[in-house]
Design brief:
This protein has about 220 residues and is of the alpha/beta class. The strands form two sheets. A five-stranded parallel sheet has the order 2-1-3-4-5. A two-stranded antiparallel sheet has the order 6-7. Strand 6 and strand 7 form a beta hairpin. Helix 8 runs parallel beside helix 9. The longest helix has 18 residues. The chain starts with a helix and ends in a 7-residue tail after the last helix. One of its GO terms (molecular function) is hydrolase activity. This is SGNH/GDSL hydrolase family protein. Keywords: Hydrolase, Signal.
């Protein structure tokens, strides 16, 4: 009986260890990819966050005059980005960082206040690493599958906007408003899952953020 107890205890510890660092394979793959193509002698702009960034495959083509690094990792929340900040952001000492987090956090029933607290930690770590890095906080987007949570999204975005107004190195990018037609969601911007965007959705994002990309 005692032997069985220790077997179960060990199994629990091993399971916890396996779950303690989600996304590690994806983050390692991203790091390996940029090991071969990143030019440390050129300024970088990092786009990071959840799958809406990961699936923005046209970023490099949209900003060919800049060294664009896309470290988005699907399903991530703000706490995950904070955990992996070194390999995904800090190692590149970027001139500018675009962050898209909060979408999955709200879906996971985290409160806007908690998301903002984690975002402040992310910002502190980035500026501790490189004090003049410009940071763009992208609004959590509306979507078909999460439209019922829109009031929480609006509350979070108001907090992001307020943060952007308080710090000259922070800017808020409103990608929420262009995806609406009045109070209604533009449903033709999404893939079949009702969450991720198609090319038309990303075209709207490009229009919303292109003027914010730093002239390096």
């Amino acid at each position: 009986m005692k032997f069985l107890f220790y077997i179960l205890l060990l199994s629990g510890i091993l399971a916890f260890g396996q779950d303690a660092a989600p996304f590690s394979d994806e983050v390692n793959a991203i790091s390996k990819k940029y090991d071969s193509i990143w030019d440390a002698n050129s300024e970088s702009i990092v786009f990071t966050g959840s799958s809406s960034i990961r699936m923005w495959h046209s970023l490099k083509a949209l900003f060919p005059e800049h060294q664009i690094i896309n470290t988005g990792f699907g399903g991530s929340q703000a706490a995950d980005l904070l955990y992996y900040l070194e390999p995904l952001v800090l190692r590149y000492a970027p001139k500018q960082v675009f962050i898209y987090e909060g979408d999955n956090d709200l879906s996971a029933k985290k409160r806007p206040k908690e998301i903002i607290a984690t975002t402040h930690e992310i910002i502190r770590e980035i500026h501790k690493n490189k004090a003049d890095t410009k940071i763009v906080l992208m609004a959590a987007k509306p979507s078909i599958s999460r439209w019922s949570l829109r009031s929480k999204y609006k509350r979070l975005n108001r907090k992001f906007k307020k943060m952007g107004a308080k710090n000259p190195l922070l800017t808020y990018a409103d990608v929420w408003s262009p995806m609406l037609n009045g109070r209604k969601l533009k449903t033709d911007l999404f893939l079949e899952d009702g969450l991720h965007m198609n090319d038309k959705g990303y075209a709207l994002w490009h229009e919303a953020i292109k003027y914010l990309v730093t002239n390096l």
